[in-house]
Amino acid sequence: MAKALDRGLGLVTVGDLLSHYPRRYASRGELTDLGRLPLDETVTIVAEVLGASKRKMRERRGEILEVTIGDGKGIMTLTFFGKGAYLPEKDLIPGVRGIFAGKVSSYNNRRQLTHPDYKLFDPDQGLDAAAWAQRPIPIYPATASLKTWKLHDAVCALLDTLPPLEDPVPDAVRIKRGLLPYQEALNLIHRPNEEADWRSARKTLRFQEAFVLQSALLQQRAELRKQAATPRVPKPGGLLERFDAQLPFTLTGDQRAVGEQLASDLAGDEPMNRLLQGEVGSGKTLVALRAMLAVADSGGQSALLAPTEVLAAQHLRSIVKTLGPDLAAEVHPTLITGQLPTADRRKATLSTVAGQARIVVGTHALMSQSVEFFDLGLVVVDEQHRFGVEQREALRLKGATPPHVLVLTATPIPRTVAMTVFGDLDVSTIAELPAGRQGIESFVVPLAEKPGWENRIWERLSEELAKGRQAFVVAPAIDSSNVELDDPDAEPIDAKSVSSVADTLAMLRKHPLLASARIEPLHGRLPSDEKDAIMRAFAAGDIDVLVATTVIEVGVDVPNAAVMVVLDADRFGVSQLHQLRGRVGRGGVPGLCLLVTTAEAGTIARERVDAVAETLDGFVLAQKDLELRQEGNVLGSVQSGRRSSLKLLRAARDTDLIGEARALAADVLASDPDLQRNPTLARAITTRLDEAERDFLAKA
Questions:
Q1: Residue 674, Cβ neighbours under 10 Å: how many?
Q2: For residue 488, what pLDDT is reported?
Q3: How far is 696 from 393, CA to CA, in rounded Å?
Q4: What is the rounded CA–CA span in Å between residue 611 and residue 622?
C-alpha cells in the first residue's frame, strides 16, 4: 500500500496522506449525470443498477456480464468478462446503488466501463436509515490501482491511531476566526456526518494553510531585513541628476512614484528586495536604469540579468542610447554573454572586476565563476519568471555585502499571487503608459470556423508593409523537430502538428503579395552574432518581416513594428500572448495583433486566445489567466516549477482569505518574531515547507 501511495500519488509521510483531502463529496441518494461523462477518462460515479444480462463469448470460452446502470437521465453499461463464478452478478442486482470507478469507453453508441471497480452502499451498523442516507461520501483524487474507497479506508485507519495533534494556528487567532481545532477539522474533512461538517473543516484547513505559508514568508522577509547592505545614495550633480536633466520627456506619475520608492530603499542600510511589475512598454527599464545610476553614483556596480542573448544585447544598446555618449563613457555599460568571442569576453570580465563597468548586462553567463565584480550594489532581474531561483541566488552572492535586488516583470501579477509567491518582497506597480502610444487592435482569426480567412492574414500584413511598416510572425516551432515554446501554461506540443519558422518562412517568401518583402528568420538555434545582426537589421528597417519563435517575446523594441501575427495562438499561455502583442504599437505607429487559431470555440485553449483579444489590460488578463488555470500552488507551479503542494488554497478565489491570514500572521510575528511562544507554528512552517521550498523562499 505504501509503495502504491508513493508511486501513484506521491504520498510518502503520514502528513501527506492526512492532507490528501477529498476533491468532492457525493451522497448515497445522489446519482451522476452519465450523459456528461467524457470518453477515455477515468471517472468515479454514483449510480443505480437497473438490470443485468449474461451471454457466452463467441470467440473464446467464457461469458460476458453486462450490467445496466442509470442516473434517471441516462444509462451506461458495466461490462465484465470471465467465467460464471468470477462474474459479480450476485452483487450487481437491480436496485442497488454504489460507487463505480473505471475508464469511459463507447460501444454501440452507449458509454461503458469495462471491468470497473465498485463499492456498493450498505447501511452502516448502528446508524438509522436517514442518517446513513445523508452521510457524505468522500471522493479522493485517485489512481487506477488506488481507488477512492481504498484511500478513504487508509485515511480512516490512520485517524483512529493518531495521538493528540497540536494546532499550528494560535488559539487566539483560531477563536477570532471561528475555526475548528486542527484535529477535529482533519477528522471531519475525511469522515463528515453531514455537509456542514466538511464545509467547516475545509474553512479551517484552508485558513491554516494560508496562515502557515504567510507566516513563513513574513518570517523570511524579516530575516532578509536583518542583513546589512551598503546604502546607495546619488551625488548632487552626479550621474543620476545629469541623466534626469537630459531626458527629452517627462516621467509618468507611476515612474516618478516608483522611482522614489527605489531611492528610499537604496538609501537604506538593509537590502532592498522589491518586485516591480508593469504593463508591456510602461517604462520599467527606464526606472531600473535610474536606480542603476544611483548605485553608480555611490561607486557601486549593477548587474542586469536578461533571459536571452537577443534581449541582453537589446538592453545594452538601449542603455547606451538612453545615456548618451558622455554618460555612457563614464558608466561604461558592458555586455557578458556565453557566445561572446573569447577576446571580447576577457575584456568585459576585466572591466567588471576592475569596477570600470558600472552597469553589466548579461545572460546566465553572469553567474559563471569567471565573472567577478569590484563592488556589486544592485542586481536587476528582467523577466524573473524565466530564471530559476538558484540562478538568481548565484548572482546575488557575488556581492561583498548583500546587494539590493530589483525584480522586473511585464507579466502583471494578481494580488494573491504577489502575496504568496513574492510575499517576502515589496511590490511596486507601473500601470500608466507613456504618452504618445497609438494603441493596439487585437483580433482572433478562427480558422476552425473561418478557413477562408487565412489568406486575408497575409493581405492585411502586406497592406501594413505598403505603408512602410514592419511585422512579426511568430510560430511555436523552429522546424518539424524543434519547439521553442517554454510557457508552463501552454498546451503540450507535437512539433510536427504546429506551424514552424522554417515552413512559414518558405511559404511567405513564395506568397505573391509579399514578393518584394524582405523576410528573415529569428530563433534560438541561430548563432549569437547572427541573431544580433538580424535584430540590428530589423531595428534599422532593413528587414520587413521577422518570422520568429518566442525569442522576441520580451524586451524587443522596434517603434516601426506595426503587425504581430501569432500562428497557433492557442498553443501559448495568456501571459506569452500579451507579451508578444506588446512588441508592436510601441511608437507613433498603431499596432495590429492577429491571433490565429484552429481551437474550437468553447475550449479552454480558445478561451485563452479570446481573453487576450478582448482587453489590453495586463492586470485583467493576469486574473483571467489565474482563473483559467485554476492553479493549486503558485509557490510551486509559478515560481519553483515543482509539483503542486498547496492543497485547498486557491489564489484565484481566496484573495480576501490570504490577505486576512497575512495580517494575522504579521500580528503574531510582531510580538513573537522567533515564535518561541508559538512552537507548534514554528514546527508547522518547517514541516509544511520541504527543503526545496525553504530553499526557494530563502533565495527568492
A1: 10
A2: 36
A3: 10
A4: 10
Expressed as residue numbers, the domain containing 71 is 2-163
- Between CA 474 and CA 549 the distance in angstroms is 5
| Residue 700 falls inside a structural domain | no
Of the residues 554, 588, 615, the one at which a domain ends? 615
Per-residue pLDDT tens for 485-517? Answer: 433 334 445 545 789 999 999 999 999 999 999
Residues 322 and 358 in one domain: yes
> Average pLDDT, stretch 278-296?
89
Question: Are residues 105 and 125 located together in one domain of the fold?
Answer: yes
Mean pLDDT of the region 291-305: 95
Claim to verify: residue 394 and residue 279 sit in the same structural domain? yes
Q: Tell me, what DSSP letter sits at residue 95?
A: T
Pairwise pLDDT comparison (523 vs 629), residue with the higher score: 523
Q: Do 403 and 524 fall into the same domain?
A: no
Q: What is the CATH number of the domain that holds 76?
A: 2.40.50.140
* Cα 113 from Cα 147, distance rounded (Å): 15
User: For residues 103 and 88, what is the distance between their CA atoms, to the nearest angstrom?
Assistant: 18
Residues 282 and 426 in one domain: yes
Outline where 267-308 has alpha helix (H).
284-297
pLDDT of residue 424: 59
Instruction: Give the model's pLDDT for residue 632.
Output: 40
Q: b or e along 422-458 (b: 16 or more beta carbons within 10 Å of the residue's beta carbon)? A: bbbbeebbbebbbeebeebebebbbbeeeeebeeebb
| Count of structural domains within the chain | 3
Alpha-carbon distance of 390 to 438, in angstroms, equals 40
Instruction: Report if residue 227 sits inside a domain.
Output: no
Q: What is the pLDDT of residue 417?
A: 64
